[in-house]
Amino acid sequence: MDDKELVESFKHGSTYEKDKAFNRIVSLYRERLYAVIRGFTNDHDDTDDLLQETFVKAFEHLHKFRGESSLYTWLCRIAINQSISFQRKKKLKNLVSLENLSVPLRSRQQDPEGILQETELKNMIREAVDQLSEKQKIVFNLRFYDELSHAEIAQITGNSIGTIKANFFHAIQKVKQFIENRYAISGK
After folding, report:
1. Which residues of 11-50 are buried (b: 16+ CB within 10 A; e: fewer)?
2. Which of 100, 123, 144, 171 is the most buried (most CB within 10 A)?
3. 138 contacts 149 by C-beta, under 8 angstroms
4. What is the Cα–Cα distance from 188 to 183, expressed in whole angstroms?
5. For every one of its 188 residues, what pLDDT tens digit does the chain have, with 9 covering 90 and above?
6. pTM here?
């Protein structure tokens, strides 16, 4: 079943079909949404709680889903809203932490020095992203780590594609500048 069929089964099926369709939606999107939420919190338990809250909210409102965006985009928007709300309640300054997301860097060197350099670079990227504005962090996270298109990010955030492109461009420039400055200071 594709997403459209799952939603239709949820909306118009028997209780059994509704539960079966929703369980399939959860199994399809659980890992991706976990990664999105994990970008907002360093705590595994908080991430699990937010993921559960995301699916509860989705279950409560799936009958209103109009299909104007993909199901994943709709679920992602719920996950982000839940995460931002959670962070605001805790009054945390940094809304996006990349601590446990893997950086898409692949070291060809397997020697300890190469691995150390790659680890240092990943840490610098995390530090650089922590310096970005809230909007730039969200766009950077969704584009760089989740590999979403500008259009998907625009749907999720409610901003124009031009705004997303500009935020991502400025985020990349700031990350590059941070890394260049750090390398210049450390003499590498």
Report:
1. eeeeeeebebbbebbbebbeeebbbbbbbbbeeeebbeeb
2. 171
3. no
4. 5
5. 898 999 999 999 999 999 999 999 999 999 999 999 988 887 899 999 999 999 999 999 999 999 888 999 999 999 998 988 887 776 433 333 343 334 444 444 456 766 777 777 778 888 888 888 888 988 998 888 788 889 989 988 889 999 999 999 999 889 888 888 876 665 55
6. 0.57
Pick the CATH number of 112-186 from 3.90.1150.10, 3.40.1010.10, 1.10.10.10, 3.30.420.10: 1.10.10.10
- HEC per residue, 51-73: HHHHHHHHHHHHHHCCCCCCHHH
The third-level CATH classification (topology) of the domain covering 3-90 is Rna Polymerase Sigma Factor; Chain: A (1.10.1740)
